[in-house]
Each structure stands twice: as structure tokens, then as C-alpha cells.
Amino acid sequence: MAEKKYKLYELSRREARRQPTLPETDMTDVVDLRHLDHNTEANTRMIHKVVVPALRPRNESVSPHAETNARCRATAGSSLNRGSFSADDRASDDVVCYTFAGVPGLLLFPGVLNAEEQQRWCKESILEFGDSAVHPNIISTHAKTPHTTTCYQPPMRWATLGYNYEWTNKVYHRDRFSPFPASLRRRMCDLVSLVAQVKQDGFCCAYPEVYEPQTAIVNYYPVGSMMMCHQDISEETLEQPLMSLSLGCSAIFLMGTQSREDAPYAFMLRSGDMAAFTGPSRTAFHSTPRILDDCPSYLTLSDEEMTQVEKQRYQQHAYFAHPTADGSFVPVDKTVMTAEEKERYWRLCMRHMRVNINARQVYGERCEAVFGGAPVGRNGRL
Ligand SMILES: O=C(O)CCC(=O)C(=O)O
């Protein structure tokens, strides 16, 4: 199982006495788009770079969708600009995308969100999207740190925006939703227009004219947590891409095929990167076995910047990352915080965390209610 190779282990005291250090995780096979010259020969051969012309801002007269057929300049892996994806043959506002021979339909856009935009989505994810009073906000089933296994698995939590997903039966319900945020809808539509410009053999990556992000799952991954191998196939519109934004700590992400038996490829996802699962990758098995403890400084606060009180509260599990003994998280009343306190709060939450926002279109038709209607059908877990 490929997850085993990358997940974070913590030794029990007994094991630590016998073998105090674990071998370092071997990252050789992980595709790394920020350091192209670090990739193996085999990985370098499968990486293809596509330069996507930037779309005009929305307020210009040409609709972004009208540019869907714009020309893309594709270059094979052998002519990659090694070591950086910023200085090359593209205009400064063009966007770089990578596709991969052997992983048809997986599109990675490294650094497509700049630092300011990353800050904005981290802040919203912590302060708004994670608010159980508005969006279903679920604590992982393994919320208690297991004492019976040597593998340390801090709990994940996640929030669902738009149509709720019923995890047990793997279905959506048309009558259960929370409002899908307008700003996230706009951004996802723009990003889907970028995705639609990437040409692939045998399938179209996206249909921006009819795309609607109707559900977003916001995953909050503390360092040490992981997401097991799964497919996302409950949506009716699998011809539309699953759009996935990475924020905060980096992750090792595995993408396979429609068969669980096939060995997946490993990719490093960093803050600001976007992955689009299109074509065959839209229905492929994938997982996130490892979160690295490397949150960029512009998204968090260092030890030196923390006050004594904040340090104490961090120990008392107040900042999202660790549950209390009964598996719950310390409730934090954000309504009484000043703007400055809120700013510090989200940055403290991000200290050892990755946030992943992934959006899907669920139904084929337009669903205006999910963008403006009052929340309905809340279940008891809000
Ligand atoms: O962590 C990621 O980047 C992917 C998350 C994912 O696979 C999911 O939410 O279904």
C-alpha cells in the first residue's frame, strides 16, 4: 500500500527504546514541480508543461468563457525550465499548468494562488467555513488520538459548503445544503475557465459555460493526519472537474487509476497550488497520506510571535489542531474577538495545519438555491 510509504509514524515508548529513530521517508519518487531538477529521470519524462494564457478580469467586456478555445503552448518534459516555474517563455500573467503521461486528466497548477489570496482563503476557512452554526462541520470519526496503535493519527475535521454530503451512504441530498459562498463560487468558475483551456487527448477537461461549484469540502488536516484511498464518484456530473486548492502545510498526494490495485503516482502539493481532477483522474482512486510541518510564515505566527497566553491556549487545544480527551475541540467564541484577535486566531490555527478546499458540481442543472437560499435540512451534527 503506497500510503504506508509516506505516512507519518510515531513510535510507542517501548518501540522508541528499541529503535529510537525511524528511517526518513524516502521522497525520491514524489513529483515536485517547484524543484524540477529534483525529480527522477522517469518522473521528468512524464511531466508536461502547458502555458495557459491568462484570462481577462471579469469586468472586461470579453467573458472568460469566450476564451476557452485560446491557444495553449505545450512543451514536453525534456524542454522544461528546470528549477523554477516563474521565469520562462510565458508572459508574466500567463499561468503554468502541468500534466502527466501515465496520469491522464490530472492537472496541477503550482502557485496559482498568490500569498495574499492564500491568506484570504485560510482566513475564511478558519473563521467562516469552519463555523458549525452555518456549515455542517464534522469531527472525524477517529477524533480521539488512538492509544492502541503506534501510528499517531490526529483527527481531521471537515466542513461542507453547499450541498451536504452524507459520508456513510455516499450521497448528496437536494434538500440539505448550506449557502455556497459567492466569492468562492466566482473564483472556482474563473479557475475552471483556466482548466478548460488545457487540451487533452480524448476528453474535454471542463465545460465552463455550464459549470457550477455546488459543494465544497473543506478539509482541515493537522500534521500527522491523513486521508485514505478513495474515489469521488457520487456527483452526477463527472465530466466537470473536481477543483482542489492547497493551503498551509504541504502534502504528499497520491493519484492512481480506477483500480485500487494499480500503484499510484506521488505528488508534492504546496500552499497556493491547485489540482484539477479531470477525465480519467476525475474518477480515480486518490489519497493524502502525509502532511509536512512547513506552513509558510506568511500564513501563521512563529513561536517568537506568540504571547504567553496564546502558548498556554495552544497547549489547551484551543486552536483547531488537537482534540481534548473526549475527542471534542475547545469551543471558541469568535463573535467577541476584535479584528486583530481574529487575525491572530486564524494564523495560530494554521501553525501545523493544511487546509484543502475542493469543489465539485453535483447536479447537471443550475441550482440557484444553493447560492442564496437559507440553510435547510441541517442534521443534528451541526
Ligand atoms: O487533500 C487533498 O488534496 C484531497 C482531498 C480529497 O481527496 C477529498 O476531499 O476527497
From TrEMBL:
GO terms for molecular function: broad specificity oxidative DNA demethylase activity; ferrous iron binding; oxidative RNA demethylase activity. SUPFAM superfamilies: Clavaminate synthase-like (SSF51197). The keyword Methyltransferase does not apply. It holds the Pfam family 2OG-FeII_Oxy_2. Residues 212-323 form the Fe2OG dioxygenase domain. Fe cation binds at residues 230, 232, 286. Binds 1 Fe(2+) ion per subunit. It comes from the Eukaryota. One of its GO terms (biological process) is oxidative RNA demethylation. GO terms for cellular component: cytoplasm. Keywords: Dioxygenase, Iron, Metal-binding, Oxidoreductase. The keyword Iron applies. Its cofactor is Fe(2+). PANTHER family: ALKYLATED DNA REPAIR PROTEIN ALKB-RELATED (PTHR16557), NUCLEIC ACID DIOXYGENASE ALKBH1 (PTHR16557:SF2). This is Fe2OG dioxygenase domain-containing protein. It comes from Leptomonas pyrrhocoris. The lineage of its organism: Eukaryota, Discoba, Euglenozoa, Kinetoplastea, Metakinetoplastina.
